[in-house]
Amino acid sequence: MRKPVIIGNWKMHTTAVEATDLLADLKNELAEVTDVEIGVSPPFVYINTARDILKNSNIKLGAQNVYWEPAGAFTGEISAPMLKDSGCDFVIVGHSERRHLMGETDEMVNKKIKALLNTGLIPVFCVGEKLEEREEGTTQTVIRKQVESGLDDIPVEKIKEIIVAYEPVWAIGTGKTATPQQAQEVHSFIRQLIIRLADAAAAEEIRIIYGGSVKPDNIDALMTEPDIDGALVGGASLKADSFAKIVGFKLQ
Ligand code: 13P
């Protein structure tokens, strides 16, 4: 049985005061949750604050990016050992905003995933097609390339530790969610790819979560699909009550 996982991606939002308030509210509101794994990923500068507030809570801490070298002359970058040292449990890599706005390539994503696994951090590995790719009918080709390149040369026993996030680019921040059926189709396709890249047991175990305009009013239907194991939530993770409602989803 795969434990559902709901992760908030705060992106480049919040001030120090807002971050502190949001973390304290989430810690309170979600204290009783045991059947869902919960994570938040604030901006780098608030990670130490978040570690202190979330201490002894059921909320895991993550970052939104990482550089693949452990240390060195890489001005402005943050390494996996630094994030581990700062109390992180997971790190988002390959987010479409990094791929399309910052020029992150499949090869860079692959190096980042390897660095995280070597450091004992869980990669939340994002993949997703653009609107024109969906309209051209190349969604599966795009997803296959992203998944195969991202997981290139990663040992079979490590693959199941990764959380894959399917985030169709056209659904991010647009209010336009993929229908549960559209998402399920791609999640099932990714699980089939994992059978080939690892094995059937890893494919059964690996968690594949959906991201793109997830809200309290669409999470229940998404979570009812057999291959959707959770959500990566942007905008709706910035308010404690909407994020708590998403974590409290009901299967339909
Ligand atoms: P929104 O939930 O704001 O659409 O963002 C999704 C996302 O990119 C999460 O990583």
What do you see in this structure?
It is a single chain. This protein is α/β, with parallel strands linked by helices and 252 residues long. Helices cover 42% and strands 15% of the residues. The protein is built from twelve helices and eight strands. The protein has helices at residues 16-29, 47-54, 80-85, 96-101, 106-119, 131-136, 139-150, 156-159, 180-197, 200-205, 219-223, 240-247, and strands spanning 5-9, 37-41, 59-63, 90-93, 122-127, 163-166, 207-211, 230-233. An eight-stranded parallel β-barrel has the order 1-2-3-4-5-6-7-8, surrounded by five helices. Helix 3 (80-85) links the parallel strand 3 (59-63) and strand 4. Helix 1 packs parallel to helix 2 (47-54), helix 1 (16-29) packs parallel to helix 12 and helix 7 packs across helix 9 (180-197). The chain is globular and about 45 Å long. The mean pLDDT is 97. The protein binds 1,3-dihydroxyacetonephosphate (13P). 1,3-dihydroxyacetonephosphate is lined by residues 9, 95, 167, 172-173, 211-214, 232-236.
Report the order of strands and helices: EHEHEHEHHEHHHEHHEHEH
User: Alpha-carbon distance between the termini?
Assistant: 18 Å
Q: What summary fits the major beta sheet?
A: 8 strands, parallel, barrel
Mean pLDDT: 97
Number of H- or I-type helical stretches? 12
What fraction of the residues are assigned to beta strands by DSSP? Answer: 15-25%
> Major sheet: order of its strands?
1-2-3-4-5-6-7-8
Number of DSSP-assigned strands: 8
Specify Rg, calculated over alpha carbons: 17 Å
Low-confidence runs:
none
Principal-axis shape: globular
Structural class: alpha/beta
**Attached small molecules:** 1,3-dihydroxyacetonephosphate
Helix content: 40-55%
